[in-house]
Design goal:
The chain is an alpha/beta fold. The chain folds into three domains: about 80 residues, Orthogonal Bundle (Arc Repressor Mutant, subunit A); about 100 residues, D-Maltodextrin-Binding Protein, domain 2 (3-Layer(aba) Sandwich), CATH 3.40.190.10; about 100 residues, Periplasmic binding protein-like II (D-Maltodextrin-Binding Protein, domain 2). Helices cover about 35% and strands about 20% of the residues. It contains eleven helices and twelve strands. A hairpin with a 2-residue loop joins strand 1 and strand 2. Helix 1 packs across helix 2 and helix 2 packs across helix 3. The C terminus is likely disordered.
Amino acid sequence: MARPTPAAPRFSYKGSRLKPLRAFCQVARLGSVSRAAEALYLSQPAVTLQLQALEREYGVRLLERSGRRLALTREGEALYALARPLVEGLDGLEAAFRERLRGLDAGELHVAAGSSTILYLLPRIVEAFRAAHPAVRLTLHNVTGAGGLDLLRSDAVDLAVGSMLDVPADLDYAPVYRFDPMLIVPPGHPLAAKPELRLEDLSPYGLILPPQRLTTYRLVDLVFQRAHVPYTVALEVGGWEVIKQYVAMGLGISIVTAICLTEADRARLVARSLARYFPPRSYGVVMRKGKYLSPQARAFVALIKPDLYAPREYDEPGHSAR
């Protein structure tokens, strides 16, 4: 025959568990009912009643006299180890809560990001964060690839913002924005007004690309190799602004992510979508799995939303990039 499930214990003294536990912890800490009563602003009989109620509740002796002091029994030590953090946590809850709220408007925040993310994606987000939390000291760590992952894993930064193709098992990546791949050429280039672009059309022209160690180069190489289309790299150089400048000078053509094309580029570049051949590039938040985010970090992440940064549209063939 199955045993009946034991009923939840009833606590009779004034219907509160916290008060007797608080009294018990004070007596255990101070070794005296009278001193505990003074600390709690209660009478000695009230503290005694609370201790007696607690002992009835658990059916064991919790305290015994040792000379002029009250000492914990073995059972009392076990209960004290469990009850002390609970009582101290509840007693300090209001102060901790107010400190947590103040943390939204003070402290430090460290964010890792690559140059393109810092230059093109983050300005409006940083502007909004600074306006809402002027007391927070924000540090943007300009890193690329493995450097940002190392900072995350060592807790040197709170989070990272950028683009990832392969996500390691110990990290979480939440993509937020997606940008199309774009061919950029100088005005008047034969590809600027070509009605329909094919991947083969790029073969005769030298490409200006970031260094081979970076994701963009690897992705371009992968797409051309899979399509069995030959291509030539005329120049490797770091930085989208440098690449755009060299393309505008007529030193080659390039394949860039739409994130880097600005209003200022309209007069010097023509941008054509290559979404037919290349996948869109995502940008989002990277965090170490299981990491607790500070209030400052949560506030920053909350601002990384699509409505803050809408992807730009681009003109059709024969027109410049917007």
